Please model this.
Amino acid sequence: QQQVKQSPQSLIVQKGGISIINCAYENTAFDYFPWYQQFPGKGPALLIAIRPDVSEKKEGRFTISFNKSAKQFSLHIMDSQPGDSATYFCAASSGSRLTFGEGTQLTVNP
Amino acid sequence: DTEVTQTPKHLVMGMTNKKSLKCEQHMGHRAMYWYKQKAKKPPELMFVYSYEKLSINESVPSRFSPECPNSSLLNLHLHALQPEDSALYLCASSRLQVGGIRETQYFGPGTRLLVL
Model:
């Protein structure tokens, strides 16, 4: 019930391409969905977040798409750059705990 | 400013040592968290403090002892750790809304702990 499933586990994209990472959840009590970006040896940094009353949120090259009925949400990175190479975690919160997906290791080739 | 600071950056300790990890934030956040992260895995919640009181302990072994001396500081005291406790230890903080709902968690850079 508390699980967040994230795919793919790893992703290789060419510079300038679109990176897409998908997450699915089961607990309908989740009401906040952040994405974190983590570089090796660093802590996770908040990238973008969405609440379920919104179907899409865009910040620069990063867009979250949210499908409440399907209980799915995804991160799109437009014009992917080598500097975007990192591990991305989706997460979901029901107020008291943050449940993370297993992570996606993104590599953007120059 | 959304900065959470953690010291030390790296720590090597023997199984009989006692050490402490420190975390500090000046964002006025009243919820603070300790997480443990193993390589290529997501962070795992260990403890949550709300208004300087321990509100969640995720069945963490007693060799880990958290402390929240004030609203800006969070410590994690370590004693008699095992090699499998080697990991990145992350601190995070967030606002606390009415009803105890927590907002975005901001993470520190972590302390890389190696237990020999």
Notes: Chain A has a mean pLDDT of 94. Chain A is about 0% helix and 55% strand. Chain A touches chain B through 22 residues (CB under 8 Å).
